[in-house]
């Protein structure tokens, strides 16, 4: 029923786009015995008639929709036979009356105030599965960050944090309010790094020093040995009151290598490529408390390792190790036989404020032969915002595709794009999802997971990744080059994502770091010279610029807000793909055209021509058709 209900949501959410004043509502006034059956029948019939009327009106009733319609008809007939009910009394969709909560179905993701809540029974990948404590999370947001961004705690804040930790180790808090060992490791690791290696302005405040001096004797009696080590590895920070640190080697075999690495990291030193790779392979994947209690590294040590490497500002060697450590986790790369493939590296933690356009941009570009691969997760800390996986789930598409299954959709000329979840393609990296919630700030993997290479193309390849903090654009481009692709692009879009805005920048705006819509990258450049070393006559051309919508023939418009609503994000995207003009439509056009033009795609040498091609893909219905067929076919390739 996933595809059926997804199609029903799609047609229902697009009712405004159809230009009809009709409401798509289900009258649930049947007898209690037949209520659920009638709901299912009405839903199926409504979907079938809506899609048929919709496409007939625009004279593009494609084979995809015809096939989907036959599937729905078959489902209606089966329900009809099982219920001994006649369908004659059901009105066409423009006469049905709707109730707003009809999208909620048993066994499905539920929609509550615009946000998806997916019931999950998976094992948590933590040894100490309590908390996280909100007071300590707030403190981590201040102190578990870089040398210039850290904001020291005042005396009251420091006392509150240490009091929560002390009450936790004394057993005075319920599990949901306890400070987890991962939180303790991240917090004390950060405090140690700040004391040893940070500038004076972001070292300990007088309030932090006073609170720790007063409360440390009590904490020392109760804290786990791993946390005591992180708080004072060399016995020099707490005034000689912590003899555990200098002799600590770990409580488990898996701890030993990590403890050695932390001794370097906590004084501001860096690790080599091979050292980081071996460490990651030692500790990942995480197995959770039942399977890994005797062999896994402690939550506290791993949390400190992850966040303190980020606070140290990773070197290119360290980032490369995080990026490529698990490249062969599932064996050789799956290969897609396509002339062009673009890999989209969005922030895995999603958008919380503005329209996330990449799913719809991928459908647009795929409809004229620029195949696309999107990857991500359902929900990721710290933002836990709107993601492509959430949108696809709500539409009824499968989100458990393996790379080989995704290849089938990419090679389908009527689809041309696919989504892969980190859960399926990099289980080792995905096993850090719970730890990432407890360390609060983004670890190095938050940067490098955007540059994963899940599928290889027989033709030309390009890779795109977003950035926010100045200084990460060059390292990310370095990682993209390491992937051996033909073209690469880094973008500072809204919320640090890939979505460029059509909003015009105010001349008086204060810009921290790179401006919004900043892009940098490389692309092939064809040259005619006998001295060219490359047999195909290709050289890389580097570029950096600030994209302006006017250069693509698009007038400035305001940015559509979605404010964590998956439903709103889908409604905006589907309306735009249906041809409804407005800010979302313009944003999709701009992002498709910029990708084509800056990556050096054929037919996009002129930015205005690139934008016109994207508009034609939408206005002809090709992009929307690709989305509809993806919903149906994604279920088939995983079944």
TrEMBL record:
Alphabetical UniProt keywords: Glycosyltransferase, Transferase
Gene3D superfamilies reported in the protein's UniProt record: Nucleoside phosphorylase/phosphoribosyltransferase catalytic domain
InterPro entries according to UniProt: Nuc_phospho_transferase (IPR035902)
Protein name: Anthranilate phosphoribosyltransferase
Species the sequence originates in: Sphagnum jensenii
